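QA checklist item 7 of 12: single-chain prediction sanity check.
[x] sequence parsed
[x] length recorded as 269
[x] structure emitted
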Amino acid sequence: MAAPNHIVWLEVTGEIIQTADGKETEVWVLQHADDAAILSAWATHFRQHYCRDEDLPDLVADTGLSNAEFLTKIKFPDAVAAPGPSTRAGDFGEILVADFIEYVLGYWCPRHGRFEDRENRNVPSNGTDVIGFSFAGEEPSPDDELLVIESKAGFTPTTKNRLQKAIDDSCKDLVREAMSLSAIKQRLLKVNRDDALKVGRFQNQGDKPFRRTNAAVAVLDDNVFAEMALDGSDASEHPNKDNLRLFVIRGISMMNLVHALYERAANEA
């Protein structure tokens, strides 16, 4: 599948932040711009995480709402009432990270149904944030790789180190991994059985060995990035610290971008 056009805005800066325990953190920047065509395509891609366009007419039918009203009031996190804005930020960061690992790093990153099935639009989805799969060949191989990612967004001033929070929550992923894989498989069974069964290569490491990599990602507004002591992050207690990758993705006016993207996704549906 071709990469969405907004991926061209993701650029590696070459900057490396060394954590307190000596691990290297890659810094990337989202150079977003006022390009209507790219933003419109991005909004469509973004909207599909919450509601497939082909399902929208049936979902809207009998509600008395327009497409935009349905998406804004029923599907998307609230723009103002807490915890809607923080859920918006977290969802945006998670989707951006999924795009990053799929279209930049080259993993398969299925996401069908993760946001669609929420009963409360303002409550973040449970489980591991993002999982990527890499296959060495047609048959299961010890060179297959499972990439398990925790992402944390920080778009407003905070004293909390968002990279450290991502690292800390990543420590829990070994416990949540089996449930998250099962959930991905179950959601995929509704749309593509062949894809769903590929997940099985990573559900029993004893019988089908593979490589497990963890990652922690902080998605930050530039102003937050400038003030956050990311070099104080410490991953020395991570259970998979020898196979842990660290990333920061930063950008200007990120919360404004988030709200603008949700608004466009609703209004252009």
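[x] summary fact logged: The longest helix spans residues 84-104.
[ ] second reviewer sign-off
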